[in-house]
């Protein structure tokens, strides 16, 4: 069985004016284009409460880095009290949204994702030696890359929301 380690886990919160559809598209595009992840939506739920709605979304993404390493990510969106608002900007009316959003991300490093070292107990022993003595720096490099990608995603998402709210 492959070894899975959660390397990064964090979230951001934002409350104010933003277009959820545009933000959703921005996040998807950034993750697929900048990190090369294949993203699939594993959960989407929407609850109506009068004029507002709450939305929960879970994305799962993965990317095979090498024959030995694989990168997985889990992104969660929790939107609370999303309402439609109409703003006037430069004399033109713009339809957008207002509410609160929480975006979380978990970065997971999978070692031996194909299970090549799982055939026998001796192979598992060899994997331990391989990871501890041969590729220690490579594992650290992969972990740093995952932390960097996940942290940059949250920074980009936060910057997008801050800019969107000030328009």
| Structural classification | alpha+beta
What separation lies between the terminal Cα atoms?
49 Å
Strand order of the largest sheet: 1-5-4-3-2
Mean pLDDT across all amino acids: 92
Number of strands: 5
Key features of this structure:
167 residues; alpha+beta; five-stranded antiparallel beta sheet; 3 helices; elongated
Task: Please give a structural write-up.
There is one protein chain. With 167 residues, this protein is an alpha+beta fold. It has one domain (3-166). The protein has helices spanning 20-34, 121-134, 136-166; strands at residues 3-18, 38-49, 52-64, 69-89, 92-111. A five-stranded antiparallel β-sheet has the order 1-5-4-3-2, covered by helices on one side. A hairpin with a 4-residue loop joins strand 3 (52-64) and strand 4 (69-89). The longest helix is centred in the C-terminal third of the chain and has 31 residues, at 136-166. It is elongated and about 70 Å long. The mean pLDDT is 92.
